[in-house]
Amino acid sequence: MKLLYSIQKYDVFMFTWLINARLYGALTKASRYLSKTGDGQLYLVIIGLLYWCSGIESPCLQAILLAFLIERPVYFVLKNSLKRNRPEAALINFHSIITPSDKFSFPSGHTSAAFMMATVLGHYFPALMIPLYCWATLVGCSRVILGVHFPTDIVVGVILGLSAAFFSLGQI
User: Fold this and answer.
1) Which domain covers residue 33, as residue numbers?
2) Which among 34, 57, 77, 110 is most buried, taking Cβ atoms within 10 Å?
3) CA 159 to chain centre
4) CB 115, CB 143: distance < 8 Å
């Protein structure tokens, strides 16, 4: 229990430091756009394009669908069993920039899905791997900047997304 308290204390410290950083105002607008790219519509467009170009036989499409079939239920179970409050509910006098789509914060679903997509797409399109991982990292960071996640929510989202992707690619 002491370990969890220490992690929570560090998490709140890092979150507060970031929110109070001088660049926070400038980052907010960009973060809104970055966060929206992880809302899910982009994933549907990619899935549609893969289906249109190669049909259901596309190994990349199959890997994405399998990864989502693993990642989304695990994400949902974790989020709704652990029930970690979002920063706005956990911190006194703090208000997030955006209104999140659900009540709990752990793990970050945006980050999880972004890293899952970056990993699968990067596997099939290696030239895009670095830009995809940069994008996924920025999606995760945007969720903290917007005040809807603590840093550890992002870290666990990364782990969940990578795990689902590696499993769907047959690398676990």
Assistant:
1) 2-168
2) 110
3) 10
4) no
- Structural domains counted in the chain: 1
> Can you give the CATH number for the domain in which 133 is found?
1.20.144.10
- What tokens appear for 60 in the block? 């990349």
Instruction: Identify the residue whose tokens are 């929570």.
Output: 8
Q: What is the 3-state secondary structure (H, E, C) of 133-153?
A: HHHHHHHHHHHHHCCCCCHHH
Is the separation of the CB atoms in 102 and 79 below 8 Å? Answer: yes
**Cβ-based burial of 73 (10 A; exposed 0-12, middle 13-18, buried ≥19):** exposed
Token pair, residue 115, equals: 């890293």
